[in-house]
């Protein structure tokens, strides 16, 4: 009965659609295109000279090797941890699943540089926590995390939530009757799991692995905090070091490096898309009730084991961070007489750079959220109604700026905005370049939840308003916006959350006066102010958890698929 | 209030025709039902009238305004047509109270606050919703929601009300009482109403005229009585009422009477005056009487108790399935004789 609506909508709708789509394409796809052009031109003409030169440098090759090793093994760690949790949470009758899932999401939401900082605080000779407990290694012993293994381990923990989420979503889409049919046929316990559940979840497992690899590859915070002290450069840190050391003169060179990361990332994304399209075949049958295979006597031990892991990867590092932030100087033992809030006071109230960064990050994150709501809401709605070719193409490409590593996007943004067309002006060095980069990067984060909610939107809601005479603007304001507001709010909080403590993009785009919080923590730690870095990091963790709790509270009113940890 | 005129309206979806060459007129103040099996194009026709779809060919006029014209590409947007639309899913806005749902069309027309209040109250009162004005749609039952949808489309005094299977989601008892609500409403307001349904009982009960649709065309557009008693073709005869269409072997005029040979027996038939030839007759239960010595020998294949009477599905010796009604009970397999009395005959092309 309800056919795809191509006609019957007013001309003003077509105009609005074209305008917004154009803006969205300029924001998200233009930088990527600009980067590509830069890499394949040399002195104004198309050429691969630059590509050949850069690829021939030994530093490129070793960074590429390091990137592949850390991202590859890091993904393996994520896979083991994330898959174990996903299978147990999605298939069995564990208690307090919601709390467990919430806690597992926190590592993904905490920025990587803070993860790295917190872990260095519970290891190594000058760890305040270890000193206080009296089990610190002797002075002069190496910090074990300043090594490839350290990077791999932390990348694994940071991204286990991705594997966990994709696999859990896949497991949830397995119809319950499939498993029940296996049990009624006599298959028991692990046999059901191995012969029925596993084959059905392989596509989502593969998709999760691919996207984890891409994310790990683009991670900047962890290899920067751990790898730079160890002299172990990955591709993103190599780009950072070159650009920080030599400025924009090496722009062409680093754009080739960025394309190299981008190429590996795109391969990963394509693999993930392929896996996910295969998964659709399995979506038949009732999935109303989640599976709950009884664990029996093993339930309590399993629960204890899972929560211990959560404590180890989440609570312990936070204690380390807390301990470091509470001592007067790095390396001092934490005792009742040495506890001081000096670092907190200094970093939060005295340092002008912190308040500036707070203002910057808050303004950027809030501005990006609001702007993206304004763009994504009408766009998602119009794209549902007008499935033009261009719209479908855009739909399939709009994840690119988010999926591509942050450094790639930063370089692309610099190239695009360092000389504004037709003018002498430049946005490089201003806060606007960071703002535009955020819009591009977090476009998908905002767009996808809104799109998911509008897909479930009954088109007759809009038609009813149309039939009583409401104009396009009135319908957007009175019907579409209020009905998709929860999804838009969740998307906005997610954008805010990720933009607020983002480092990867702003690391290459900041300049004095436009520091973001991520940059400040990185710089504080870099300059040895570990106590202040820890205090600031704790503050951010607190903000993150509060915002996540807010989404959790909102989740009852949201359609499925909007809250990332509840899909 | 206005007449609705359609001139050879057609609609294709990606090459597949959904509507073909519809030319018809719905009179001012008429209650018209569009009846047909699913996929016959009735909802498409309704959505074209509302303006949600543009016709691929032909033009549409409501009153004196041309609403759509496929040749010139003119198309008045739904929001500018002043039409009421009642959706199968009710399409109440879940974030607005009942009162706000009903008053929203008036807000858009920028009426004064007091005018909005008076007209909203009147619309709520006429649908019996005064006590529910401050509830949210989610707190209402299906029938109440449908009444809110009706109140919402009345409040702005539309020139026609279009209803897309508005009772399909309601249970049987509620459906009957809502039919009363729609009929009363139509009587009181005199609004032109176009009502899409696949349920013939619903159409028969409410409509002044019924347009029976199949394969994108209007097969017959007449009053319920004429549709039932004088179907134009096989589709209408079989779709409306419980009818079996059987071929006529021979047809002749004997004075004023028309005689047709059916199953080897000559019976008097009725047909349209202009038909000089007929090819089929429509046999309904009332055309068949059961008698021991009936000409048409048949065997009972299924018995359905209809409350007070039985519906017999019988198979004649030559294999035709006929429906007969009886107060007496027969067993499956019983042999009986049927007599045919003045069935409706028509020419099938």
Automatic annotation (TrEMBL), chain A:
Q: Which residues form the ABC transmembrane type-1 domain?
A: 64-272, 358-551
Give the membrane topology: Multi-pass membrane protein
* Keyword field: Cell inner membrane, Cell membrane, Membrane, Transmembrane, Transmembrane helix, Transport
CDD domains membership: TM_PBP2
Q: Which residues form a coiled coil?
A: none
Q: Name one GO biological process term.
A: transmembrane transport
Q: Which Pfam families match?
A: BPD_transp_1
Main location per the UniProt record: membrane
One GO cellular component assignment for this chain's record is: plasma membrane
Indicate the transmembrane segments per the record: 16-37, 68-91, 98-119, 151-171, 250-271, 304-327, 362-382, 402-422, 428-447, 479-500, 532-551
Database matches in InterPro entries = MetI-like (IPR000515), MetI-like_sf (IPR035906)
Location in or out of the cell? Cell inner membrane; Cell membrane
Instruction: Work out whether the entry's keyword set contains Transmembrane helix.
Output: yes
What the record says about family reads:
Belongs to the binding-protein-dependent transport system permease family.
For this protein, the record's PANTHER family field holds: FE(3+)-TRANSPORT SYSTEM PERMEASE PROTEIN FBPB 2, INNER MEMBRANE ABC TRANSPORTER PERMEASE PROTEIN YDCV
Task: Provide the protein name.
Answer: Iron(III) transport system permease protein
Source species: Pacificibacter maritimus
Q: What is the lineage of its organism?
A: Bacteria, Pseudomonadati, Pseudomonadota, Alphaproteobacteria, Rhodobacterales
From TrEMBL, chain B:
Q: Which Pfam families match?
A: ABC_tran, TOBE_2
Q: Where is the ABC transporter domain?
A: 4-240
Q: Does the keyword Nucleotide-binding apply?
A: yes
Q: Where does the source fall among the domains of life? A: Bacteria
Query: Which Gene3D superfamilies does its entry note?
Result: 2.40.50.100, P-loop containing nucleotide triphosphate hydrolases
Cellular-component GO terms for this entry? ATP-binding cassette (ABC) transporter complex, substrate-binding subunit-containing
The keyword Transmembrane helix is annotated on this UniProt entry: no
- Which keywords describe this protein according to UniProt? ATP-binding, Cell membrane, Membrane, Nucleotide-binding, Translocase, Transport
Gene Ontology MF terms in the entry: ABC-type transporter activity; ATP binding; ATP hydrolysis activity
Matches recorded under PROSITE patterns: ABC_TRANSPORTER_1, ABC_TRANSPORTER_2
Name the protein family. Answer: Belongs to the ABC transporter superfamily.
Name of the protein in question? Carbohydrate ABC transporter ATP-binding protein (CUT1 family)
- Organism of origin: Pacificibacter maritimus
């Amino acid at each position: 009965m309800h056919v795809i609506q191509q006609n019957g909508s007013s001309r003003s709708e077509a105009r609005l659609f074209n305008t917004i789509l154009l803006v969205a394409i300029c924001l998200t796809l233009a930088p990527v295109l600009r980067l590509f052009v830069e890499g394949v031109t040399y002195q104004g003409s198309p050429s691969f000279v630059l590509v050949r030169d850069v690829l021939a440098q030994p530093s490129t090759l070793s960074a590429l090797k390091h990137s592949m090793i850390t991202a590859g093994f890091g993904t393996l760690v994520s896979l083991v941890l994330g898959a174990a949790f996903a299978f147990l949470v999605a298939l069995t009758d564990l208690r307090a699943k919601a709390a467990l899932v919430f806690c597992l999401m926190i590592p993904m939401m905490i920025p990587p540089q803070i993860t790295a900082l917190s872990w260095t605080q519970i290891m190594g000779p000058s760890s305040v926590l270890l000193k206080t407990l009296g089990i610190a290694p002797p002075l002069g012993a190496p910090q074990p995390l300043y090594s490839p293994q350290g990077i791999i381990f932390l990348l694994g923990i940071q991204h286990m939530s991705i594997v966990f989420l994709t696999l859990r979503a896949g497991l949830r889409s397995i119809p319950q009757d499939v498993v029940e049919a296996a049990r009624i046929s006599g298959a028991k316990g692990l046999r059901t799991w191995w012969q029925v559940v596993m084959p059905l979840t392989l596509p989502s497992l593969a998709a999760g692995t691919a996207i984890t690899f891409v994310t790990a590859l683009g991670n900047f915070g962890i290899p920067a905090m751990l790898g730079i002290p160890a002299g172990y450069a990955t591709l993103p840190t190599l780009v950072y070091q070159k650009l920080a050391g030599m400025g924009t003169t090496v722009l062409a060179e680093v754009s080739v490096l960025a394309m190299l990361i981008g190429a590996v990332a795109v391969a990963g994304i394509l693999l993930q898309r392929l896996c996910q399209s295969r998964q659709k075949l399995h979506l038949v049958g009732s999935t109303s009730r989640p599976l709950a295979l009884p664990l029996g006597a093993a339930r309590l031990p399993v629960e204890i084991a899972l929560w211990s892991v959560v404590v180890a990867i989440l609570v312990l590092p936070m204690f380390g961070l807390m301990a470091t932030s509470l001592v007067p100087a790095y390396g001092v033992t934490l005792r009742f007489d040495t506890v001081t809030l000096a670092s907190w006071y200094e970093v939060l109230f005295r340092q002008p750079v912190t308040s500036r960064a707070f203002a910057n990050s808050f303004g950027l994150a809030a501005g990006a959220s609001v702007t993206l709501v304004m763009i994504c809401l009408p766009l998602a709605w119009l794209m549902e109604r007008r499935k033009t070719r261009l719209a479908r193409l855009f739909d399939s490409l709009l994840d690119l700026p988010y999926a591509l590593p942050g450094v790639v996007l930063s370089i692309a943004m610099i190239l695009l905005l360092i000389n504004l067309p037709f003018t002498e002006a430049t946005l490089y060095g201003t806060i606007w370049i960071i703002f535009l980069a955020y819009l591009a990067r977090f476009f998908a984060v905002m767009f996808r939840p809104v799109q998911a909610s509008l897909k479930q939107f009954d088109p007759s809601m809009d038609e009813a308003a149309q039939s009583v005479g409401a104009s396009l603007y009135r319908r957007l304001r009175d019907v579409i916006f209020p009905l998709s507001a929860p999804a838009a709010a969740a998307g906005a909080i997610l954008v805010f959350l990720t933009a607020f403590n983002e480092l990867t993009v702003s690391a290459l785009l900041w300049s004095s006066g436009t520091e973001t919080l991520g940059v400040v923590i990185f710089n504080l730690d870099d300059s040895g102010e570990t106590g202040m870095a820890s205090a600031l990091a704790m503050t951010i963790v607190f903000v993150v958890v509060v915002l996540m709790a807010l989404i959790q509270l909102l989740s009852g009113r949201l359609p499925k698929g909007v809250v990332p940890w509840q899909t | 209030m206005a007449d609705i005129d359609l001139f050879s309206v057609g609609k294709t979806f990606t090459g597949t025709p959904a509507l073909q060459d519809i030319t018809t007129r719905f009179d001012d103040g008429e209650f018209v039902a569009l009846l047909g099996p699913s996929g016959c194009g009735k909802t498409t026709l309704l959505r074209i009238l509302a303006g949600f779809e543009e016709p691929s060919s032909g033009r549409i006029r409501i009153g004196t305004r041309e609403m759509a014209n496929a040749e010139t590409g003119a198309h008045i947007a739904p929001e500018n047509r002043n039409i009421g639309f009642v959706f199968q899913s009710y399409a109440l806005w879940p974030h607005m109270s009942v009162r706000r749902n009903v008053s929203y069309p008036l807000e858009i027309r920028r009426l004064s606050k007091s005018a909005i209040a008076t007209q909203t109250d009147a619309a709520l009162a006429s649908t019996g919703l005064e006590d529910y004005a401050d509830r949210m749609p989610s707190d209402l039952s299906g029938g109440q929601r449908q009444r809110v949808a009706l109140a919402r489309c009345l409040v702005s005094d539309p020139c026609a009300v279009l209803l897309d299977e508005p009772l399909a989601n309601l249970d049987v008892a509620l459906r009957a009482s809502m039919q009363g609500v729609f009929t009363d409403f139509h009587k009181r307001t005199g609004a032109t109403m176009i009502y899409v349904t696949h349920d013939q009982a619903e159409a028969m009960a409410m409509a002044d005229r019924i347009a029976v649709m199949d394969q994108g065309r209007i097969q017959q557009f007449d009053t319920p009585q004429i549709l039932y008693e004088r179907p134009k073709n096989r589709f209408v005869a079989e779709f409306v009422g419980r009818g079996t269409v059987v071929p006529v072997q021979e047809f002749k005029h004997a004075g004023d009477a028309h005689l047709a040979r059916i199953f080897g027996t000559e019976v008097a038939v009725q047909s349209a005056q202009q038909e000089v030839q007929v090819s089929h007759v429509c046999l309904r239960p009332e055309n068949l009487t059961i008698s021991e010595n009936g000409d048409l020998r048949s065997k009972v294949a299924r018995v359905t108790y209809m409350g007070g009477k039985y519906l017999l599905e019988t198979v004649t010796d030559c294999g035709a399935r006929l429906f007969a009604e009886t107060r007496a009970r027969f067993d499956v397999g019983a042999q009986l004789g049927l007599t045919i009395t003045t069935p409706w005959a028509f020419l099938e092309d």
